[in-house]
Amino acid sequence: MLLHVDSRFLSPYALSAFVALKEKGLAFELATLSLEAQANLAPDYQRQSLTARVPMLEDGDFQLSESSAIAEYLEDAYPERPRLYPLDLRQRARARQLQAWLRSDLMALREDRNTEAVFLRPAVGTLAPEARQAAHKLIAAAEQLLPADGGDLFGAWCLADTDLALMLKRLQYDAILPPRLAAYAERQWRRLAVLDWLELGRRAAQA
Length: 207
Prior knowledge:
Blueprint: E1 2-6, H1 12-24, E2 29-33, H2 43-49, E3 56-59, E4 62-65, H3 67-77, H4 89-104, H5 107-112, H6 116-119, H7 129-145, H8 159-169, H9 179-188, H10 192-206
Parallel strand pairs: 1-2
Antiparallel strand pairs: 1-3, 3-4
Helix pairs in contact: 1-3, 1-8, 4-8, 8-9
């Protein structure tokens, strides 16, 4: 398998697909694209990916983009491997609801605290009013979903934990983030699959 990701390792969606492959224990290689140079708009890449975005997974002669689709494909194609989602139907639906929401909402927060503030350098300045409103919305949902002991969302790790932790990490330098949520995000950030991604990002930043 081959996973196409951004060359700076800043895409939250590429991270999610990378972690999914790692947690499944599947062998794969990486190909990097410079989004700044618009390599994702090259005709061959655009034709294969359909959406001209990263990540894109190649599994043999099958190509698939969009991180949520990749995760669901891996779950269905390799059911004998460690699970990415809860076994329980309703918990699995909740995990996918959370992932869909994190990808489609909170735009003001994602713009004000982009992934450079997660992976590269502290954010500068205070949150804009719209971003602060989105942050409160995120915090309220996270506090409702997380168990009292601050453990994983559904009693055992799932891919939604990584996605939620990344969104919370956007607020890691803001006093608005409650300590319990900060501790949860930091613990998720110490998973080996995430650490592997962070190391790739460090190498890319030093190159």
